[in-house]
Predict the 3D structure of the following.
Amino acid sequence: MSVLSHVPFRFLLAGRTVAALGNAIAPVALAFAVLDLTGSAGDLGLVVGARMSAKVLFLLFGGAFADRMPKHLLMVGSGVAAAVTQGAVAALVLTGTATVPLLIVLSAINGMVAALALPASSAILPQLVPAELRQRANGLSRMVFNGAYIVGAPAGGVLVATAGPGWGIAIDALTFLLSAACFAAVGVVATPRSGKASILTDLRAGWTEFRSRTWIWVVVSAFALINACLSGGFNVLGPLVAQHSVGRQAWGFVLGAQTVGMVLGAVVAMRIRARRVLFVGVLCTAFQVLPLLTLGVAPRSGLLLAAAFLAGFTIEQFIVAWETSMQEHVPADRLARVYSYDMVGSFVAIPVGQVAAGPIAEAVGVRPTLIGAAVLVGLAVLGMLASRDVRHLRHRLPDGEKAPAEPMEELAA
């Protein structure tokens, strides 16, 4: 926990945690607000889809802005704007004046301001802690982020059931204000470049940086496929399978086991010492096959709980390794833009998988669809491991520490 001795990082961590808590409450509250308004799942899809679409559209601009202006100011501005939009939604719901078109517009604005801050939030961390502490800082960030969701999602359900969805959205608006205050306390962080070039020039430079590093575009391409398979297989078909096998309550426990695995995985990821930490992380992504395969072959409670826990635990090994590798090997003046291309590759695939899962399952069957998704995830992992750049990318260990992973080194070679 020596990383917490750095005061700016403590404020960054606090801001992220508060924002994550609010973001865990918001989807529950917004979903029931729309359902109370119209009772239509289609309307709910339009409201949620508007936010995600705007998020994807503006992510690249968020990366460009973050590389040309103080990142903490961009995060503060985004937090205040998000508080205003969510406050407006809360007011509309509480006063009974909400309409679906208004909610769509406000959700799109909220997605836009979130996109403008996301790359900055990731790219600012290496400027707040020494290089040798970045892995621990990333692991700690993931641990408290997942912990906030464990607390926030049930709290959102209780809040909506007792006080109503409008108050849940109002709490989310308050968390954005609190997170903005924390980000303001981070202090001025030097901007690594000037903003004289045009935004399009900046975006082209970021794309050049992205595609010039084979290990980056290989992993992002693979995870576009992995995310599509997991979002469609686990998140869409998973509840369908659970309803006819283990039941809704058991499925809730499965999701909980996955989140607990992620929290514990982040704790372990902070302590891993390997020269090829990205290679280790990519190896761990192979466990994402387990939930899909279990749903397709043997959807039983015990097996699903174990598979979800292992998937959550191991994905954190990859996420921390990925964040650390990006921060170590991408120049600081282009890091936010590279992050934005990474995020676009991830977010675009999620709705594709969600939309495609149902029609494919209707055409060939749920079980073959889940098994096919598991096979595609496995092939994506093999594709990453086939890249020499992924296998041999070096990680900087803290001074005086020696990597104890010689068997892994030999396997990577």
Remarks:
- Residues 204-413 form a domain with the Growth Hormone; Chain: A; fold (CATH 1.20.1250.20).
- The chain has two domains: 1-134+151-186, 204-413.
